[in-house]
């Protein structure tokens, strides 16, 4: 059983320490939290990649690799994620847990020190980021932004979010956009980095066998050079938005052989609401599992889609339905997807559907404790949302959800935007 402890390291800098002896590796992470914004998203996304190229003591990636090899082959990688309308950028590292070192020597303090060095002591030239490192990583970022169009299923979801949440921070992609990325210079990126250092709230994460107090001590020492005294304003929770009276319709044509029908719904429920467990269960009944209505009816029984599923945008009041369809079946697929939603709203689902969905949600929550990456992902989201509920506690609430509560949650769903990616000849 993993125990979570929240510890303040400095003003605006908080540690989530998960104490467990289940894993042979320990995980360390540090993230800047920044409100999602088109003006800063690309710069924020670029900062950890440039920092990872070298430090004042380890001048390049070869030297950093050697330092990690000395820590039993540990790893520290840049990460860029979003949670709701907050962009989370920084590093995630994995190291051999102290309980498994050959001679009992501690790894935690050395790993934390290297993490702090990467974050706070970058390699610079003329007082700013190295031009070569900046140019190389800027090109990589632009390539990643451009490559998003290659995976059409996720691209359709990206475009749906942009259209549905135009004017909302949630509509901004985690990597930003090509124009803002291309404009970044070492000087501009350095200024953005300094702003993050001074003003961004920082979430620190540790999972391993060390006592939380020891982890806090190691990380306080590692982050001691952080600028102090500034106000680290925590991003607020996203405000709910009502769906329009008439759903938005967006159709785009590309050279594709399979249509992508993607539908965005407003849920009226967010992760901190009492009804959230019912929403989790509703999503599983509707389209979140292989026993859901969308899978069994739209895909299997009627063969209207190559795939059809629903998913919640956690920490934001949005559900997305994704489906792959033949061009001539799009209207039939759309009608049947909405018919299955109407069935959920009317409580027209069998007990076995409800209980199968419940087992799936509860199992997924409880099994998150068995994977380091899923555990870190969960607690990052909870920290950003200002929540302290564990996966086990959330699973217990899901177990207590009634049929009536699922129907009530379903009745709050409202179609907001429909995005269809069709072929050029369709």
How does this model look, in words?
By secondary structure, the protein is α+β, with helices and mostly antiparallel strands. The chain is 42% helix and 23% strand. The chain has helices spanning 41-51, 61-70, 108-120, 131-147, 152-164, 178-182, 186-199, 212-222, 276-288, 293-301, 330-345, 351-367, 372-385, 391-399, 403-410; strands at residues 3-10, 13-19, 25-35, 75-83, 86-96, 124-125, 128-129, 202-208, 248-254, 259-266, 307-313, 318-325, 414-423. A 6-stranded mixed beta sheet has the order 1-2-8-3-5-4, with helices on both faces. The chain has a 5-stranded mixed beta sheet with strand order 9-13-10-12-11, with helices on both faces. Strands 6-7 form a two-stranded antiparallel sheet. Strand 11 and strand 12 (318-325) form a beta hairpin. The longest helix has 17 residues, at 131-147. It is globular and about 60 Å long. The N and C termini lie far apart (54 Å).
Provide a compact summary of the structure.
The chain is of the alpha+beta class and 426 residues long. It has 15 helices and 13 strands. It comes from Candidatus Flavonifractor intestinipullorum.
């Amino acid at each position: 059983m993993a125990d979570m402890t929240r510890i303040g390291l400095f003003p605006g800098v908080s540690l989530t320490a998960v104490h467990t002896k289940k894993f042979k590796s320990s995980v360390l992470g540090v993230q800047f939290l920044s409100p999602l914004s088109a003006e800063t998203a690309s710069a924020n996304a670029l900062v950890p990649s440039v920092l990872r190229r070298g430090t004042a003591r380890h001048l390049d990636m070869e030297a950093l690799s050697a330092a990690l090899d000395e820590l039993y082959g540990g790893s520290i990688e840049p990460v860029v994620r979003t949670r709701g309308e907050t962009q989370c950028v920084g590093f995630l590292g994995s190291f051999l847990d102290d309980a498994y070192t050959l001679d009992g020597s501690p790894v935690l303090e050395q790993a934390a020190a290297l993490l702090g060095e990467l974050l706070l002591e970058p390699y610079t030239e003329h007082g700013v980021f190295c031009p070569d490192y900046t140019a190389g990583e800027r090109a990589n970022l632009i390539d990643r932004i451009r490559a998003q169009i290659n995976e059409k299923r996720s691209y359709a979801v990206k475009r749906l979010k942009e259209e549905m949440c135009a004017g909302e921070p949630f509509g901004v992609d985690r990597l930003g956009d090509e124009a803002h990325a291309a404009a970044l210079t070492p000087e501009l990126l350095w200024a953005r980095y300094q702003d993050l250092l001074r003003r961004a709230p920082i979430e620190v994460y540790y999972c391993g066998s060390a006592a939380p107090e020891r982890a806090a001590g190691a990380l306080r020492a590692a982050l001691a050079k952080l600028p102090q005294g500034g106000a680290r304003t925590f991003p607020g929770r996203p405000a709910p938005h009502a769906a329009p009276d008439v759903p938005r319709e967006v159709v785009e044509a590309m050279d594709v052989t399979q249509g992508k029908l993607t539908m965005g719904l407003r849920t009226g429920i967010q992760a901190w609401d009492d009804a959230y467990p019912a929403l989790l269960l509703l999503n599983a009944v509707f389209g979140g599992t292989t026993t859901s209505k969308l899978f069994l009816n739209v895909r299997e029984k009627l063969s209207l889609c190559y795939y059809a599923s629903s998913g919640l945008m956690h920490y934001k009041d949005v559900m997305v339905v994704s489906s792959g369809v033949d061009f001539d079946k799009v209207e039939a697929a759309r009608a049947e997807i909405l018919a299955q939603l109407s069935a959920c709203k009317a409580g027209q689902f069998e007990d076995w559907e409800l209980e199968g969905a419940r087992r799936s949600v509860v199992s997924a929550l409880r099994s998150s404790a068995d994977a380091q990456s899923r555990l870190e992902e969960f607690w990052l989201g909870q920290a950003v949302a200002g929540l302290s509920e564990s996966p086990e506690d959330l699973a217990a609430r899901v177990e207590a959800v009634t049929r009536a509560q699922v129907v009530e949650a379903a009745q709050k769903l409202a179609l907001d935007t429909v995005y269809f990616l069709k072929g050029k000849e369709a």
